[in-house]
Here is the input.
Amino acid sequence: MAFYRPARWQRPATLAGLVALVALPAALTALGQEFYIGFATRVLIFALAASSLNLVLGFGGMVSLGHAAFFGIGAYTAAICQQAGINEALFAFPAAMAAAGLFALLVGSVSLRTRGVYFIMITLAFAQMVFYLFVSARAWGGDDGLPLAGRMTLAGFSLAGDSALFFASLAALTAALLAFGRLAQARFGRTLQAIRENETRMEALGYPVFRYRLVAFALGGAVAGLAGALLANLTGLASPNLLQWTQSGTLLVMVIIGGVGALYGGVVGAAVLLGLEEVLVGFTEHWHIVLGLLLLGIVLFAPRGVAALFGERRG
Amino acid sequence: MADALLEVRGLSRRFAAVDALKEVDFSVAAGEVHALIGPNGAGKTTFIHHVSGALQPDSGSVRFAGRDITRLSMHERVRAGMARSYQITNVFLGLSARDNVALAVQGRADAGTSFRFWRPVAAEAALFAEAVDWLTQVGLAGKAEAVAGSLSHGEQRALEVAMALATKPQLLLLDEPMAGTGPEESARMVELIEHLARHVTILLVEHDMDAVFRLADRISVLVNGQMICTGTPDEVKADAGVRRAYLGDHL
Here is the structure.
């Protein structure tokens, strides 16, 4: 893989996409399809979570199978904040990011001492530990998860309306992608990608490789935590399902479909996967079969992901 | 040697049942070109790995610039002033020659931290200007924009050296810089090393005997994990043990 560089069309296309998304809730309301505002919000939130994994996996070259832990910790942190009487997202969301980020720091400081399969297994093991912790924590709902009494407020404005939460999610995703896009071209991102390409060479140039990886891993965890907090608001529940290893797998699949190491890989992957699910479920309950075939097709014919088909430039 | 820049004492390392290095004593004086030679499998690369920090010894010590660095990691040793080039070309093939060297410049302590998240590297003109200076030193000024993967083998070897130089080392470890190059490219590399030797201390591992005898101030000979001889090129040529173990009909 080469280093990230934005394509020339990327900025205008992004702006056009943003404008379309900003107009989306009003358009859906006008068409009487308000239901899809919630669906679109879900796509945005998963796009955020998948993008945070793409920072770790795509730019950092770290194949983590425990990303759901950070996602779920974010959701639980939001719910626990509300349980404790903090209903303001300006506190709860940063708290979710901090909790997930700190846990990622802990996981990373252990797991990043290993490579390859060992790294995958250790991240998975940490995530499973968190899963069983929350399943057995009765104060936090155990198996049933921890419900939210209602959506939070953001800077005093209620997120109860579907459009409000949509815009909050859109803002979070936009900010994250802007930050990742900048980071990828700044010293940190160049260093990270060079480490992905050739770790030993970077050591031999004097770079403390472990530290750069750890920071990227924690950053990815924190952003996943934000996505989790948003999702808890959307669904009204911090569920242990969010912490399942299958959830980590889903995020991985999204990144692979969209494009590993492509800035919009997570967004494209989340939109394709959730969109297909939405459409196919209407036809057959065996929609996973179709999804599996699609995944095979992508791996065979577009191994760099769907985003790469649109020529995101590399070099 | 009173002012040894690199001083290795009693270095030993076993791999399973094999003594890869046995009680190796070795030193490089500041300012010299010191060549390390030995037959294939003698342990030269293993030895270099212990000097550069890629491997840790079972016993013995490595001192560099008056400081014990035996337990320092590779990147800490680079920061302390020791850089290496690789036997197998080890550059970022997808990046331009200039970007490769700019990464090396960026990694240096005096270039500031790389925990910068916002400003594009492309805007840091100083990094790239310096990178071009290093490329000029190794004769690659005209290839700055070329993607490293498109360079000839000899050019990639030179790029490798430029990256090591850009870390501003006191000691440059060159691991077979002539490996796989043709006669013309080898000649150019010899000239380059002669030029560099005026500014930096060099530890050279090389199979090309013509190059070694032309460049080296001193030569050490490693055979079966043991340093059997160290001396000037003439002393080494005359050494009976060396002749028996290694050079044989070469001389």
User: Anything to note?
Assistant: The interface with chain B takes residues 1-3, 179, 182-183, 185-191, 194, 197-198, 200-209, 212, 215, 314-315 of chain A (CB under 8 Å). The mean pLDDT of chain A is 94. The longest helix of chain A spans residues 209-235. The first strand of chain A starts at residue 146 and ends at 147.
